[in-house]
Amino acid sequence: MATQRTSRPTRGQTDREAGYLTRLLGRIGRAPSGCWPWLGTLTWGGYGQIGRHGQNVTAHRAVWEHFVGPIPEDLTLGHRCHDEDLTCPPGPCEHRRCVNPTHLYLQTRSEQMTARLAHAAAM
Ligand SMILES: [Zn+2]
Ligand SMILES: [Zn+2]
């Protein structure tokens, strides 16, 4: 071991983090489509939701941050499974609860708008 972490988390923090990960990983479902539907609470907009360190965050962001890494502040996390399925109407749909990191991608807000408009135009 080359380096030793100087500030070790306290036992309480470690337990809380472990509890959070258990909740996070325990609420990921598997759908035949390849989507990983969130099995926990959903927001009014149809996104998965989880409490993390006293804050509610959307589940697809929490899963992305766990498996992939931090989300830059100026980017948003889009659903490829939704954006590529133009038969899926805009608004709350089954894809929103999908937390499969390979179905998610970082996009700018203008890319997000373009994807939404493509769906609206396909209707
Ligand atoms: Zn999906
Ligand atoms: Zn959809």
Q: Quickly give the CATH architecture.
A: Alpha-Beta Complex
Q: Helicity, in percent? A: 25-40%
Average pLDDT? 92
- Sheet-strand content, in percent, reads 5-15%
Which cofactors or ions or other ligands sit in this model? zinc ion
What's the assembly state of these chains? single chain
Shape: elongated
The largest beta-sheet arranges its strands as: 1-2
Secondary-structure element pattern, one letter each:
HEEHEHEH
- Cα radius of gyration in angstroms: 17 Å
Could you say which structural class the secondary elements and strand pairing correspond to? alpha+beta
User: What is the terminal separation in angstroms?
Assistant: 58 Å
How many domains make up the 3D coordinates? 1
Q: How is the main sheet built?
A: 2 strands, antiparallel
Runs in which pLDDT lies below 50 for 5 or more consecutive residues are none
| Number of helices in the DSSP assignment | 4
Tell me the number of strands: 4
| CATH topology tier name | Homing Intron 3 (I-Ppo) Encoded Endonuclease, Chain A
The first-level CATH class is given as Alpha Beta
List keywords for this structure.
35% helix; 123 residues; binds zinc ion; two-stranded antiparallel ribbon; Homing Intron 3 (I-Ppo) Encoded Endonuclease, Chain A; alpha+beta
